[in-house]
Sequence to fold (303 residues):
Amino acid sequence: MKYPLLEKMIEEAKSNLPLGVVYPLSAPALETVIDLVNKQLCTPILIGPEDQIRELAGANGFLLDGIQIVDTPQDPILATQKAVEMVKEGKLAVLMKGSLHTEDLMGPIVSRTGLRTERRTSHLFLFELDRYPKLLGVSDCVVNIAPNADQKIQILKSSLEALNKLGIHNTKVAIITATEVVNPTMPATMDAKQIVDTHTTNAIHPQTIIEGPFGFDNAISMESAKTKGIDSRVAGDPDLLLVPDLQVGNILYKSLVYMAGAECAGTILGATVPIILTSRSDSVFSRVASTAMAILLAKNSHH
Fold:
């Protein structure tokens, strides 16, 4: 499979920005680092127990020549705290999760002394699909479990700002639920109506069309929307899908990857720097694409 849109993003992202890899004590984490160096995406800096990192690299035949390692105790939380400190000192532009648990990484980041901003943290995926002509954003499939309407608006703001930084403008947003009918017994449809009404009176983001609720089919297929008699500027052409909750987002994301052959890039937004969460099941390509996405966001952030 070819993923020309994500490959173009990887090409554009080449940089020497410093990227902190937090606690890279697994073979896939180190393999990703080697890949980033080969692709010239960034300057990775490894943050964790140096002896263990070197031992693991040796055992797997990875050459860490010329890669800086910031030695920490063998404790993922202390490694994360060191990374947070380095971001505050302006030494890191992006963070990447190594082999620690997500909560051990995110705990120190979202704490009051961490890297939080006035915005909640959220996650944005970009999917490249055979049957869709452009990258498709989906949020939030990773961080917010059951966001309310106000929190969804924050997720939208972060996602739309990020899409703009990635060169995606005049965005169309579809708010996804199980139906296009607003139904008081389905809170997600009420949230959708509230968000659309809010955007009408006071734009959530400039040059953006936000519509919903949509069933997934009506959002993604113009035919389906016409059959249902839905008159919409978004149907068949969304840049971003807003999902009702983490369950839906997680299942949608995995079904796009496993059933539809999609590849994706994803980044955590809302902290002072972009954060890349990798999971053991991610493809190497997806890790590289996620890094490219984060690097472009960091390049185009004017502090």
Notes: The two ends are 38 Å apart (CA to CA). The longest strand covers residues 122-128. The CA atoms of residues 103 and 202 lie 35 Å apart.
